Amino acid sequence: MTPAASEGIRKIVHVDMDAFYASVEQRDNPELRGLPVVVAWKGARSVVCAASYEARKFGVRSAMPAMRAERLCPHAIFIPPDFTRYKAASQGALEIFRRHTDMIEPLSLDEAYLDVTANKTGLPTATRVAIRIREEIRQELNLTASAGVAPNKFLAKIASDWKKPDGLFVIQPHEVQSFLLRLPVGRIPGVGKVMEDRLKQIGIGTVGDLHAIELQSLEMQFGRYGRRLYELARGIDHNPVVPNRVRKQISAEDTFESDISLVQTEAVLRRLSEKVWAASKGNVRHARTIVLKLKTKEFQTITRSFTPAEMPLSAEELANAAVALLERVTSAPEQLFRLAGVGLQNFQSDQEPPLFAEAAPE
Fold it and tell me: Are 345 and 314 in contact (CB under 8 A)?
């Protein structure tokens, strides 16, 4: 029995709404259905929040500069984001989840983990639960969702992406190793383009290649993350679904397809600030500190924080504060960055805003 199979008593479902922001726009305006929709403000500093599958056929992706998206798909329809409507749809999905389990760990407006080992509706399998949830989302919200079913969170996350859009994929405990070993290493959540290239440079192109590397070797090259890679290559993930967890920080971050300069991170920080604002439902005054996070192409993490006398009163003010923190980052002009993030922390009370609204790239 594999290590992952020994955890088979857990039944985890990862639900991921398909092209969520763009799908809400197409749902609410039938004239947009079947057309390439890009949710973003137009402009040199704007970044794509979401793209419909019609736009994705032209290579448009979330976190991409809006100007590049316009070049790739000149006939795309650009729509500014409306987080009020997205949050309403997100809340509707959460209410559906609650019919089936209280063990819900939201990740963003459009995705969540559910532990359905013991579900409320008495359905015999996690697969049946996932089928029912997807049906209810379609019927009640007029949206589609993809779902992955597996013995742990790591595998469920991979599975939900396997048959997107509007798909369901199940990884049974006895199938874990045979499924994992053939995957490109880039399919591991958290392994971005830069890390994938770095792994390929040392001869690791598939999860099977990673599985063959000794733990000590991975730890020497990647530190603590090396152990994580070692475990994931074996389908091991002990992280439980944590409902209603109190977080010390509400944040959003992006890992870029290719490294960018410090100046170029400004557009990303402004988009992430919108997501963090949506996550907190605008109630940022419960927080006391604004945090900037950057990661260099060499994997060095840089953080800067600011505790203002009064917290921002709008997403734009939050974005301005986050961008201002860039002035406190000392780096060589040629330094490139692989990740940027914005966060709120140092909350005044234990009652933080509902985390189902915490945003992340689609």
Answer: no
Q: Which two tokens stand for residue 326?
A: 């860039």
Q: Which residues contact 342 (CB under 8 A, 6 or more apart)?
A: 251, 252, 253, 269, 272, 273, 275, 276, 290, 291, 292, 293, 318, 319, 322
In a domain, 237, yes or no: no
Q: Quick check: 37 and 77 in contact, CB under 8 A?
A: yes
User: Rounded to an integer, what distance in angstroms lies between the CA atom of residue 73 and that of residue 43?
Assistant: 15
CA distances from 207 to 7, 8, 223, 228, 231 (A): 20, 21, 18, 13, 11
Euclidean distance between CA atoms 337 and 20, whole angstroms = 27
User: What would the DSSP string read from start to end of 35-62?
Assistant: S-EEES--STT-B-SEE-HHHHTTT--T
d(CA 226, CA 188): 13
Longest dimension (CA), the chain: 60
pLDDT digits (tens, 9 = 90+) for 55-69: 999 999 887 888 889
Token couple for 54: 């019609």
Tell me whether residue 362 is in a domain: no
Given 174, 203, 224, the domain boundary residue is 174
Domain of 152 in residue numbering reads as: 5-19+84-174
Q: How many helices (H) and strands (E) does the chain have?
A: 13, 12
Residue listed under structure tokens 């209280």: 102
Number of domains making up the chain: 4
- In angstroms, rounded to a whole number, what is the distance separating the alpha carbons of residues 331 and 270? 21
Give me the mean pLDDT over the 86-103 stretch. 94
With 70 as the cut, is the pLDDT of residue 359 above it? no
Residues 342 and 296 placed together within one structural domain of the fold: yes
Handedness of CA 309, 84, 93, 69 (dihedral sign): negative
Say whether both 93 and 110 belong to one domain. Answer: yes
- Give the CATH number of the domain where residue 151 resides: 3.30.70.270
Catalytic residue at 111? yes
Among 105, 111, 352, 358, which one carries the catalytic annotation? 111
Instruction: Please report, as a single letter, which amino acid is at residue 165.
Output: P
Residue 282 has pLDDT above 70, yes or no: no
Question: Distance between CA atoms of 325 and 347, rounded to whole angstroms?
Answer: 20
Q: What is the DSSP letter of 283?
A: -
